[in-house]
Amino acid sequence: MMAKRRFELDWDNLPEEMSLYFLDLIQHRDISNQVAQLFQVHHESPQLLLIKDGECILDQSHGEISVEDTLVEIS
């Protein structure tokens, strides 16, 4: 929850057209496995995946999660 709260503090800096989704993948392990397989990432929690044009272009977890890095990737 700490990583989510820290990210939420900077949500206003994200472009309006960027959709954000919070998935509780610990409660839904089947979805977690599908996401990991589809985007070829190792599941961690908490984790931020930035998906652009159907590909995962940024994969961060725990203390690495930042709006600043996300903004760099989408520019």
Automatic annotation (TrEMBL):
<dbReference type="InterPro" id="IPR022551">
    <property type="entry name" value="BrxC"/>
</dbReference>
<protein>
    <submittedName>
        <fullName>Uncharacterized protein</fullName>
    </submittedName>
</protein>
<dbReference type="Pfam" id="PF11009">
    <property type="entry name" value="BrxC"/>
</dbReference>
